[in-house]
TrEMBL record:
Molecular functions per Gene Ontology: hydrolase activity, hydrolyzing O-glycosyl compounds
Pfam families associated with the record: Glyco_hydro_1 (PF00232)
Keyword Hydrolase among record annotations: yes
Comp. bias regions, Low complexity: 409-435
Region Disordered: start-end pairs: 408-435
UniProt KW keywords: Hydrolase
Lineage: Bacteria, Pseudomonadati, Bacteroidota, Cytophagia, Cytophagales
UniProt protein name: Glycoside hydrolase family 1 protein
Length: 435
């Protein structure tokens, strides 16, 4: 077992519905991954990347309660294992299968826990998971902004979606942990900040800056701020639902993934409306805010930028984000990985997937013809230059990763047995803790 810094990329697998559920936005289809999945895995190897954010398409894999079609997952995960690429398994990326409806459905959390367990049982060599991707953004875009899935716009709908999404994530962690006791969970969550444009905007900005933490507060069992507690209860969360999160978190097995894009910072007007501010604080400052709150190891789990007219915009952004990662690390924060997302260009993210136009967004390491972009060449060089440097530094967390080829080794099983005993100890502590 060799401690590794997790240089990663991902296959974009967003799949929300739009137009009141009539249209499924399947990024794997739009980016032609179903057609070129073997070539895509070749490209991951070509870059020297050993960790891939990846998951089966939930809407075609999960057919009903206890009913699954693993055909595509069997092909792709078998091939990842053969290549010794460790997947960070993304089980729910902004969408649900049609039979479940949307994130207002109270049956979703428990059923999703069953789905996560079934996946872990079928692929027991998988160790790394992001059960639900960007929980806050999923709830916000679906039930506060009215863009996807349920397409609702209100605080009660948002709180309902959020509590169901985070509970699903927690139950999935428990279910996976019963199968794979040494599983590690990497939350990929958008790291946001809201800047007041004028004095009258201070109050709404403060509320938004408190609300941005809700998904992780609940996921990690952290008591929310008093104003947010009232906000949750005023909008439909019960005391019993709130206390579920305090009692059932799995933070001891978590890595806090922070996603950062230029669009993550916002200017807030006096009326509470917002507009993009562009990069003001940057990844370093905002990630320190999140780490100071949760005190967990960190991974930079998403970033990208369009390759612009000069051809070097994305390359310069990669350099800037990497400099921020090193600054966070040198400040003493245990940062364990970095991700350029995604492997290929994406489609229609310029409208946040709200419009089904087929617009190609040139922000991948490769274009959709699978030709490398300048940022892909730059990332390959960055990985080559830094791979052997980072693990030698004591400040970098030594993540106990079991690579696919080692999953059947005796030492790996011993490690799982140790993790299972630690889980039992943690469960006892949590059960006896005051709620």
């Amino acid at each position: 077992m060799i401690p590794q810094f997790l240089f990663a990329t991902g296959i974009e697998n967003s799949n929300p519905t739009i137009q009141n559920g009539r249209v499924r936005v399947d990024e794997m289809a739009k980016c032609r991954h179903y057609e070129f999945w073997q070539k895509d895995f070749d490209l991951v190897e070509e870059l020297g990347i050993r960790f891939l954010r990846y998951g089966p398409p939930i809407h075609t894999t999960w057919l009903g309660p206890g009913r699954y079609d693993w055909t595509f997952a069997d092909l792709t995960f078998r091939d990842l294992g053969r290549r010794n690429i460790a997947p960070i398994v993304d089980l729910c990326h902004f969408g649900l299968p049609d039979w479940l409806g949307n994130f207002q459905n109270p049956d979703f959390p428990a059923l999703f826990g069953d789905y996560a367990r079934a996946f872990a049982e079928r692929f027991p060599w998988v160790q790394l998971y992001t059960p639900v991707n960007e929980m806050f953004i999923c709830a916000q875009f679906s039930a506060l902004y009215g863009w996807w899935n349920e397409q609702l716009s209100g605080d009660q709908a948002f709180v309902t979606a959020l509590k169901h999404i985070v509970k699903a994530n927690v139950l999935a962690m428990h279910a996976i942990g019963e199968v794979r006791p040494d599983a590690l969970f990497i939350q990929s969550e958008s790291s946001e900040y809201f800047h007041a444009e004028n004095p009258q905007a201070i109050k709404p900005a403060e509320l938004m800056n408190a609300r941005r933490f809700l998904s992780l507060d609940l996921n990690y069992g952290r008591r929310v701020d008093s104003e947010m507690y009232e906000y949750l209860l005023d909008n439909g969360m019960t005391r019993e639902e709130y206390h579920f999160f305090l009692r059932n978190h799995r933070r001891h097995q978590c890595i806090m993934g922070n996603d950062y894009y230029k669009t993550n910072e916002h200017r807030v007007r006096a009326d509470g409306s917002t507009t993009a501010s562009g990069e003001v604080f940057g990844y370093h400052v905002i990630t320190r805010q999140y780490h100071d709150r949760y005190h967990l190891p960190v991974m930079h789990t998403e970033t990208n930028l369009w390759q612009g007219p000069c051809g070097d915009e994305a390359v310069n952004w990669l350099w800037k984000e990497w400099a921020n990662v090193l600054r966070v690390r040198n400040d003493g924060v245990p940062i364990v990985g970095f991700t350029w997302y995604s492997l290929t260009d994406q489609v229609d993210w310029d409208s946040a997937l709200r419009e089904n136009r087929g617009t190609v967004n040139p922000l991948g390491l490769y274009d959709l013809d699978r030709k490398i972009r300048p940022v892909g060449a730059a990332y390959k060089q960055l990985i080559h230059d830094w791979r052997q440097v980072l693990p030698a530094q004591s400040v970098c967390l030594q993540v106990p990763i079991v690579m696919p080829h080692d999953a059947s080794q005796e030492w790996a099983q011993q490690k799982q047995d140790q993790a299972e005993a630690q889980q039992q100890d943690q469960t006892t502590v949590a059960a006896n803790a005051p709620s």
